[in-house]
């Protein structure tokens, strides 16, 4: 064991012992370096390094993004100078400018990203993410509409678009997108999304029927059982809701959300003894999630 540990330490020290005249060596050291200031000292000189590629400069900027956005922007701008047609650089610049709250810079970077890659959906996806973060769900859904138009065969983009349409209270448009995703997404998952749209539109009875179809389509899909349980609560079928939430928990033993929802339901229905048993199960299986347990299952 001592020998193995010694070899492992030596392997980590190798980058420090080699002559450091290549950008990848600075990046390798920076990846394992803690502290923003130390990383800045390692990475900022790459701006003037003749061998640094645009991809390496972008990675260096990513490593500085959280604690030193101004220095990250300098590295990204150098990457842009060396590779002007790279959409990845413009997307990175937009994220950096967003961290620095430079709205004009964000807009300019996203516009350049569209110019260099007009058929790429990623600039629209990032625009949607930034608008959603600022609370503009309508603007986010419009940006995701543009992304979906560029990549209609991408189910992940389609489902994100549906979620934003749901948040923007546009159920008919969301259902139309789900219809376009037929054959690209498993049917049970599509039914769950359809049920969520109906629930958001206040049509809980219809949503229950759709969620039940999803559980029949794929009896192993925990999400379908979970959403069925929540919808049954809203229509007042508490016993059936408890059964669905317990089944959702059995299908996904690694997540506490089904038991937490079950306990909240039991407390709301004043089933205190049942809630105590559910809380005991939560504490036994998810002792590291006590804050969630306290919030969802606070026994009076």
From TrEMBL:
Gene3D superfamilies: Tetratricopeptide repeat domain. TPR repeats lie at residues 188-221. InterPro entries: TPR-like_helical_dom_sf, TPR_rpt. Keywords: TPR repeat. It comes from the Bacteria. This is Tetratricopeptide repeat protein. The lineage of its organism: Bacteria, Pseudomonadati, Myxococcota, Myxococcia, Myxococcales.
